[in-house]
Amino acid sequence: MDIWNRHFECMDRDDLRRIQSDRLRETVERVYFNVPYYRQKMQEAGLGPEHINSVDNLGKLPFTTKQDLRDNYPFGLFAVPMSEIVRIHASSGTTGKSTVVGYTRNDISTWSEVMARTLTAAGANRNDFIHIAYGYGLFTGGLGLHYGGEKIGASVIPVSGGNTMRQIQLMRDFGSTVLACTPSYALYLAEAIQESGIGRGELKLKAGVFGAEPWTENMRREIEDKLQIKAIDIYGLSEVIGPGVASECMCQDGLHIYEDHFYPEVIDPVTLQVLPEGTQGELVFTTITKEGLPLIRYRTRDLTRLRYDKCSCGRTMVRMDKCLGRSDDMLIIRGVNLFPSQVESVLLEMSGIKPHYLLIVDRVNNLDTLELKVEVDEAYFLDRISQLEALRKKLQDNLESSLGLGIKITLVEPKMIERSEGKAKRVIDKRKF
Amino acid sequence: MTIPQLSVFLENKSGRLTEVLEVLGKENIRITALSVADTSEFGILRLIVSDPDRARTMLREQNFSVNLSEVISVMAPNEAKYYAKVLKILSDLDISVEYTYAFSKGSKSIIILRCSNNEDAIRALKEHEMELLHASELYKI
After folding, report:
1. Within A179-302, where are the H helices?
2. How crowded is residue A363: how many other Cβ atoms within 10 Å of its Cβ?
3. Mind listing the pLDDT tens digit for each residue in A108-118?
4. Looking at the structure, do residues B20 and B54 belong to the same domain, yes or no?
5. Tens-place pLDDT, residues A206-240
6. Residue B77's domain spans which residues?
């Protein structure tokens, strides 16, 4: 089994720790002198760069959250002048504000490197045809995979999302060997292939790299059975770099974190204390090579645990379990992040409906569906169907443009949505993870 | 000259219409006319009842979304040509009918109309000597 960068991926852990400490020191110095936000936070904690000598001191530093990124929207946490930034991505965020990330030329190179490792770990090489059905654009999925694919010298097919029949035809005609998309889309494709009349024998697929949303071992078996490929889990988030933060190898026993670039910790999301190896908690990353947007102890809200034993593939990089839960209320729907508060802010801006709502998430034919039940305001309700349809259409348009997701709106009678005294139940997620 | 009509927003699920009628039944409210407009997911129940204000209060107490609107009632022989005549009078004046429903009593039809402009509609129908009903007359039918 090939390893893209044996020097780092199989490095002795003591050597790795020294490199991590060196890189952390440089990162802390950079953010202290270049990002007023970090300097202020460190000064408030009575810290200067001289207090952080190694990764052992990391715990002294304050955490960074998604809210901090929003508060400094769009470029406030960038650590280089904009003239050094060569790429900007953004992910959807609450109340209309995106989470914006910027990359220097070196960051793009780092990203390509970790994606090359990811694709190599999935068994891909220069002879492969990589079919990228992740969305291209502000979302990091498409371009992240793209640069990694080019770096390993594979033939990259930037199909992007949508038009499933065409995807299948291209897969057959071009002889795609590696598929990159969300796991739910992989299952959807599998069924579309069965229905298309194109025999599996006409396709050359051998592996798939799937991420951007949580998926279970059962889903993996189903994808592997239906597509007859090896299904590899990949992990990433745009704030840290995009896809390529961690990925499984052919052993499919945990995801190797590329920790020479992204230093992981697992904390108790309530006490914020670092947890011992093997304990489940919230994953926190400190980027130790990034230039454009370095992040110190960034809380991912993803729940997982870390294992430091050597993998049978030979890699020494720490492994994390598949992420199956969150320590906040963020939903991931068709790879798109969604906070219930985003829906609420759209509702509050509209007359005719009450801000009592219930979001129902389900998975039908392997695709996530999103339904919103919302109460009709009596003051607005008159007696015409056309009026109610217009209200529903407007709500749907506003939500779809704000969330970037298709949504079904169901108008319900007043008081049909359960009121609760404590935290309101706003979401029913029927998907099985 | 207009008639108050109750509109009740209903989700399309079994038993909801029954609940509305039971609420009204308990209060001994008489129903003169009823129609349902529906889509696949929700409907609007339209009711002309003997005591609309009390009916509205009762339904609101049971958490129904209720509105009072004004409609017109025309009495005509129960033949299609008279219904057609009523609609033609309105369309000739560019008064649009938002919805209409009707029921028969003996040889007469009672037509209920909601128009884009009820006042203009009433004036036009009167000019053509159509027989318009007052609420009190309608409740006696």
Report:
1. 183-196, 217-227
2. 18
3. 999 999 999 99
4. yes
5. 999 999 888 888 889 989 999 999 999 999 999 99
6. 71-140
- Residue that has been written with the tokens 């920790």 in this structure: A259
CB neighbourhood size of A419 (10 A)? 8
What domains sit in chain A, N to C, each tagged with a CATH number?
Answer: 6-328 (3.40.50.12780), 336-429 (3.30.300.30)
A327: CB partners within 8 A, 6+ apart: A269, A282, A301, A302, A303
Q: How many domains does chain B have?
A: 2
Distance between A382 CA and the closest CA of chain B, angstroms: 6
| Entry pTM | 0.74
Q: What is the Cα–Cα distance from A380 to A383, expressed in whole angstroms?
A: 10
Per-residue pLDDT tens over the stretch B89-116? 999 999 999 999 999 999 999 999 999 9
Nearest residue to B75 (alpha-carbon basis) of B63, B64, B85, B61: B85
On the question of pLDDT at A433 being above 70, the answer is no
pLDDT band at B49 (very low <50, low <70, confident <90, very high): very high
**pLDDT digit string (tens) for A363-391?**
888 788 999 999 887 777 777 888 888 88
Give the integer Cα–Cα distance in Å for A88 and A80.
Answer: 13
Residue A94 has pLDDT above 50, yes or no: no
Contact check, Cβ <8 Å, B42/A388? yes
Helix, strand or coil for residue A204? coil
Q: Is the pLDDT of residue A146 over 90?
A: yes
CATH at B14 = 3.30.2130.10
- B38, B42, B67 ranked by CB distance to A383: nearest: B67
Residue B106, both tokens? 């003996």
| Among A residues 349-368, those touching chain B with beta carbons less than 8 Å apart | none
- pLDDT tens across B56-72, in order? 999 999 989 899 999 99
Angstrom distances, CA of residue A82 to CA of A34, A101, A112, B71, B75:
12, 12, 21, 65, 77
CB of B98 less than 8 A from some CB of A? yes
Please check whether residue B40 touches A, CB under 8 A.
Answer: no
Cβ atoms A209, A247 nearer than 8 A? yes
Residue of A15, A75, A12, A38 lying closest to A287 (CA atoms) = A38
On whether both B33 and B94 belong to a single domain, the answer is no
Q: Which residues of B touch A358 (CB under 8 A)?
A: none
CA distances from B2 to B35, B48, B62, B136 (A): 18, 12, 27, 11
The yes/no answer to whether this complex scores an ipTM above 0.85 is no
Q: Is A415 on the interface with B (CB under 8 A)?
A: yes
